[in-house]
């Protein structure tokens, strides 16, 4: 029903406007008695064989929703009814910020992709906490954290620590988002020396709590083998808990979209089918190079059960969807979990 009826209708409207419209639609319909149970019956798949234990956490199934969809943690309880095993909220920054000027979200329909330059738009740390206090405990929640756009380079770590310390009681694991191409001073966030400093500071803060939370690094799909080798060394040297591979791409090669269309869109991070193989290559390289010594969450271009299985075969322990969720609808989650069951 989604692909035949709802998607053609939704795709007639501005992507960002329809995003907020669907949020309201899901929120309001979920208030109707019986609708959440109906969603669960239609889309959720409960099976002990799907459970995964990672980072000391039990995931109901290995299919999650990537960060960027529920930035402000306003819909995770309702989205849980669609069968996700975990949901990552954020990216959250200390202060609320509007992000980049609109228009900043674009569909590449022929490529089944999206280009965005949202710029970490979110309501800020305190707003996210107020929403997370409403957690009904349906599934694992990850907290994706970043810095404010206006933060000076010498205060980047302070921003991450502020988010980390405040969110610690409310999320199950953390992701340091240092690979988004839509924020300023992207270069410093990918500098190995700075990453070592940042990770050490966050780990030190983690140790002040009675129970520690897993800390993961989200990396770009455009890294070359030498840079991926540095990531493997970084994880080993810092005892980082894992990696999310991958974020959006700045590469525009091989797209069906015309040069004129891409020029009109301008800069931004590319997600969806066009980065599927690139993301899988990164996962496979990290897994093999590290001898599977750390967990990997695979994300990027998962639009089918086959795409998800490719990520898992490449070395991903869990997978996340985002653009595939928009193009394929909520039935994708159940399809992936059914395919995983067939391999067990």
TrEMBL record:
<comment type="similarity">
    <text>Belongs to the dihydroorotate dehydrogenase family. Type 2 subfamily.</text>
</comment>
<dbReference type="GO" id="GO:0106430">
    <property type="term" value="F:dihydroorotate dehydrogenase (quinone) activity"/>
</dbReference>
<feature type="binding site">
    <location>
        <position position="246"/>
    </location>
    <ligand>
        <name>FMN</name>
    </ligand>
</feature>
<dbReference type="InterPro" id="IPR001295">
    <property type="entry name" value="Dihydroorotate_DH_CS"/>
</dbReference>
<feature type="binding site">
    <location>
        <position position="144"/>
    </location>
    <ligand>
        <name>FMN</name>
    </ligand>
</feature>
<dbReference type="InterPro" id="IPR012135">
    <property type="entry name" value="Dihydroorotate_DH_1_2"/>
</dbReference>
<feature type="binding site">
    <location>
        <position position="301"/>
    </location>
    <ligand>
        <name>FMN</name>
    </ligand>
</feature>
<feature type="binding site">
    <location>
        <position position="218"/>
    </location>
    <ligand>
        <name>FMN</name>
    </ligand>
</feature>
<feature type="binding site">
    <location>
        <begin position="116"/>
        <end position="120"/>
    </location>
    <ligand>
        <name>substrate</name>
    </ligand>
</feature>
<dbReference type="GO" id="GO:0044205">
    <property type="term" value="P:'de novo' UMP biosynthetic process"/>
</dbReference>
<comment type="subunit">
    <text>Monomer.</text>
</comment>
<feature type="binding site">
    <location>
        <position position="272"/>
    </location>
    <ligand>
        <name>FMN</name>
    </ligand>
</feature>
<feature type="binding site">
    <location>
        <position position="177"/>
    </location>
    <ligand>
        <name>substrate</name>
    </ligand>
</feature>
<keyword id="KW-0665">Pyrimidine biosynthesis</keyword>
<keyword id="KW-0285">Flavoprotein</keyword>
<comment type="function">
    <text>Catalyzes the conversion of dihydroorotate to orotate with quinone as electron acceptor.</text>
</comment>
<dbReference type="InterPro" id="IPR050074">
    <property type="entry name" value="DHO_dehydrogenase"/>
</dbReference>
<dbReference type="GO" id="GO:0005737">
    <property type="term" value="C:cytoplasm"/>
</dbReference>
<feature type="binding site">
    <location>
        <position position="177"/>
    </location>
    <ligand>
        <name>FMN</name>
    </ligand>
</feature>
<dbReference type="GO" id="GO:0005886">
    <property type="term" value="C:plasma membrane"/>
</dbReference>
<keyword id="KW-1003">Cell membrane</keyword>
<feature type="binding site">
    <location>
        <position position="71"/>
    </location>
    <ligand>
        <name>substrate</name>
    </ligand>
</feature>
<dbReference type="InterPro" id="IPR013785">
    <property type="entry name" value="Aldolase_TIM"/>
</dbReference>
<keyword id="KW-0288">FMN</keyword>
<keyword id="KW-0560">Oxidoreductase</keyword>
<dbReference type="InterPro" id="IPR005720">
    <property type="entry name" value="Dihydroorotate_DH_cat"/>
</dbReference>
<dbReference type="InterPro" id="IPR005719">
    <property type="entry name" value="Dihydroorotate_DH_2"/>
</dbReference>
<feature type="binding site">
    <location>
        <position position="182"/>
    </location>
    <ligand>
        <name>substrate</name>
    </ligand>
</feature>
<keyword id="KW-0472">Membrane</keyword>
<feature type="binding site">
    <location>
        <begin position="322"/>
        <end position="323"/>
    </location>
    <ligand>
        <name>FMN</name>
    </ligand>
</feature>
<feature type="binding site">
    <location>
        <position position="91"/>
    </location>
    <ligand>
        <name>FMN</name>
    </ligand>
</feature>
<dbReference type="GO" id="GO:0006207">
    <property type="term" value="P:'de novo' pyrimidine nucleobase biosynthetic process"/>
</dbReference>
<feature type="active site" description="Nucleophile">
    <location>
        <position position="180"/>
    </location>
</feature>
<feature type="domain" description="Dihydroorotate dehydrogenase catalytic">
    <location>
        <begin position="50"/>
        <end position="341"/>
    </location>
</feature>
<dbReference type="Pfam" id="PF01180">
    <property type="entry name" value="DHO_dh"/>
</dbReference>
<feature type="binding site">
    <location>
        <begin position="67"/>
        <end position="71"/>
    </location>
    <ligand>
        <name>FMN</name>
    </ligand>
</feature>
<protein>
    <recommendedName>
        <fullName>Dihydroorotate dehydrogenase (quinone)</fullName>
        <ecNumber>1.3.5.2</ecNumber>
    </recommendedName>
</protein>
<feature type="binding site">
    <location>
        <begin position="247"/>
        <end position="248"/>
    </location>
    <ligand>
        <name>substrate</name>
    </ligand>
</feature>
<comment type="pathway">
    <text>Pyrimidine metabolism; UMP biosynthesis via de novo pathway; orotate from (S)-dihydroorotate (quinone route): step 1/1.</text>
</comment>
